[in-house]
């Protein structure tokens, strides 16, 4: 991993103990929307972290550290000299984790060799994709697959205005993509690539799902 931010870029000793302060330093001069997009999640989520309204999961910490080119250990704790076997950095390098699941790095590299560095773990929060993806199911998202122009068919994570959705996308014809729900209770709608909504952002393709039996 890389070294943390230099001392002159850090806030005073009291403020640097607070995660939002370190996160603001990590974002730096980048726009919140652009930084969040590079991390693989929405700017709404990043703003919640910056405002102290919520704390990031380990996968989110790892994504932020990689995007900002800083130490996971410094980002998570503000410290740089903790024991390597106990540090968040050591854990992050061995696992991409979201309690109660942990993914071993070697397995991820084998299963997803082309997108390992760009995987994001998130959770299905509504029933629109049941029975394929039930509420609470954990999904791994390949955040390199974000180009609507090349979508043919698959399940994707997308942001529409202020909502983050998991939907099935299908290219039909005439530069039109149908947005489908596997549950019959939800209506399908179409996106025309030539005039797609300004609030639409494709965040990645779902490549793995885990759920309770």
Which properties best describe this structure?
213 residues, alpha+beta, seven-stranded antiparallel β-sheet, two-stranded antiparallel sheet, 7 helices, 9 strands, 26% helix, disordered N terminus
Structure overview:
- By secondary structure, this protein is of the alpha+beta class.
- The protein has 7 helices and 9 strands, in the order ααααααββαβββββββ.
- The protein has helices at 19-27, 32-39, 43-50, 58-68, 72-77, 88-94, 105-111; strands spanning 95-98, 101-104, 119-123, 138-142, 153-160, 163-173, 176-180, 189-192, 200-210.
- The protein has a 7-stranded antiparallel beta sheet.
- Mean pLDDT is 78; it is low at 1-17 and 81-100.
Describe how the helices and strands are arranged.
Layout: H1 19-27, H2 32-39, H3 43-50, H4 58-68, H5 72-77, H6 88-94, E1 95-98, E2 101-104, H7 105-111, E3 119-123, E4 138-142, E5 153-160, E6 163-173, E7 176-180, E8 189-192, E9 200-210
Antiparallel strand pairs: 1-2, 3-4, 4-9, 5-6, 5-9, 6-7, 7-8
What is the gist of this entry?
By secondary structure, the chain is an alpha+beta fold.
The secondary-structure element order is HHHHHHEEHEEEEEEE
Class computed from helices, strands and strand pairing: alpha+beta
**Strand line-up of the largest beta sheet:** 3-4-9-5-6-7-8
Number of helices: 7
Overall geometry comes to globular
* Number of beta strands: 9
């Amino acid at each position: 991993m890389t070294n943390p931010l230099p001392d002159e870029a850090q806030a005073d000793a009291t403020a640097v103990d607070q995660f939002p302060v370190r996160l603001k330093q990590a974002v730096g001069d980048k726009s919140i929307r652009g930084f969040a997009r590079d991390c693989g999640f929405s700017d709404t989520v990043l703003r919640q972290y910056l405002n102290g309204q919520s704390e990031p999961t380990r996968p989110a910490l790892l994504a932020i550290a990689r995007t900002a080119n800083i130490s996971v250990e410094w980002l998570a704790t503000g410290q740089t000299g903790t024991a390597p076997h106990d540090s968040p950095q050591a854990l992050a390098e061995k696992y991409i984790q979201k309690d109660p699941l942990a993914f071993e790095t070697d397995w991820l590299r084998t299963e997803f060799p082309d997108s390992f560095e760009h995987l994001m773990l998130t959770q299905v929060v509504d029933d629109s994709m049941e029975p394929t993806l039930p509420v609470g199911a954990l999904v791994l998202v390949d955040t390199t697959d974000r180009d609507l122009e090349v979508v043919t068919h698959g399940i994707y994570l997308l942001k529409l205005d202020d909502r983050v959705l998991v939907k099935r996308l299908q290219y039909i014809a005439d530069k039109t993509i149908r947005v489908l729900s596997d549950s019959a209770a939800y209506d399908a709608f179409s996106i025309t690539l030539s005039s797609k909504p300004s609030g639409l952002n494709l965040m990645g393709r779902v490549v793995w799902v885990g759920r309770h039996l």
